[in-house]
Design a protein that fits this description.
two-stranded antiparallel ribbon; mainly alpha; 11% strand
């Protein structure tokens, strides 16, 4: 016989082990911790590339990466709300939110890694053309290191 308690489901007379239940604050803490750490990494900066010509691609990639980090934080709020208010019957629902939050952070790191590769190619191409001096003001692109793409 199983009975529902605040700690989860217990079997028998309490002699069995409790099933670990995912609470809404677990999802929120996971999402906010990953999003906060990812945002900190992006604000801290990384390698610097000096570019003579503006690259709209690099600007879009930076925007996409920041939007993905913000989406992970929003997904943490949505996941906590769904688990709290909707009480899904299937126990995999909270784990799906964990996976989506992690996937959004990995995608943000992927966008940043692609931007860094593009910046390196542009900087190498501009450096090979003559003395490497810009005819106008140089633009600085700071690549963020990320955790998943080296």
């Amino acid at each position: 016989m199983k009975r529902l308690t605040e700690e989860g489901t217990r079997s028998g007379d309490g002699a069995g082990s409790a099933v670990w239940a995912v609470r809404p604050h677990h999802i929120a803490a996971f999402g906010f911790t990953l999003s906060g750490a990812a945002l900190y990494e992006r604000l801290r900066g990384g390698r610097v590339y000096v570019l003579c010509d503006p690259s709209p691609l690099l600007g879009r990639l930076t925007t996409v990466a920041l939007c993905l980090v913000a989406a992970a934080a929003v997904m943490a709020v949505v996941g906590a709300w769904v688990v709290q208010e909707k009480a899904p019957r299937h126990s995999a629902v909270p784990w799906v939110f964990f996976a989506v939050i992690a996937a959004l952070i990995v995608a943000a790191d992927g966008a940043d890694a692609y931007g860094e590769r593009e910046a390196a190619v542009i900087a190498a191409h501009e450096g090979s053309e003559g003395a490497g001096r810009c005819g106008e003001a140089a633009r600085i692109y700071e690549a963020t290191p990320g955790w998943f793409f080296w």
